[in-house]
Amino acid sequence: MSEKTAVVTGAGSGLGRRIAGALLGAGYRVALAGRREDALRETAGPDANALVVPTDVADPASVAALFAAVQGEWGRLDLLVNNAGVSLGGTVAELSVDDWRRTVDTNLTGMFLCAQQAVRLMRDQDPQGGRIINNGSISAHAPRPASVAYTATKHAVTGLTRSISLDGRAWNVACGQIDIGNAATEMTERMAAGIPQADGRLMAEPTFDAGHVADAVLYMAGLPLDANVQFLTITATTMPFIGRG
């Protein structure tokens, strides 16, 4: 396991930090990608198996430099956790074009750019192959009010996951998606005070320990390449997702 290498995007906080920590704890060598170098260094701590690579996933040159650094440091890549994302609220009538484009650039184009570089590396290395895990969201299934950009990108991530899965077969590259609802991170702290529901009410929502997400990623990552979790959904049990809300 000590020879396994991974890239985690959005590793400076939230789920990315928890996932990166779990992978490091399991013996992976992990490249930590994100925009804030100081936050990435906090995630890395003293672990010698952590490689800090400040990265803007929406910038093709920055993404190419990330994967070049991984190849130069370790010579191969076994796992990409495509986690980086932003959530900019707004209804279809109110969301600015700039916020729409920023969301698409990060949540969708950024995932594509990282997946493209990862697949190329996995295709050309010996032994060939690897795994990509895309962070979807339960918004890949159903929207929240005033989440048009986020929801649209997460639906698109599902199509990206399926296409990578199909294209990757030729090079022994597996791809799956984890859809998460209400893991307890900085992003979900506001849920305790109440967030808008489909019927117009404000309602506090339950959350669950984000460590369970990291455990799920470890399970998906630990499978041999002839097996794949195509889609995994993990949510707070009683959140308003299943049923009529």
UniProtKB/TrEMBL annotation:
One of its GO terms (molecular function) is oxidoreductase activity. It comes from the Bacteria. Coiled coil: none annotated. Its EC number is 1.-.-.-. It holds the Pfam family adh_short. InterPro entries: NAD(P)-bd_dom_sf (IPR036291), Sc_DH/Rdtase_CS (IPR020904), SDR_fam (IPR002347). Keywords: Oxidoreductase. Signal peptide: none annotated. It is an enzyme of class 1 (oxidoreductase). Belongs to the short-chain dehydrogenases/reductases (SDR) family. This is SDR family oxidoreductase. It comes from Amycolatopsis silviterrae.
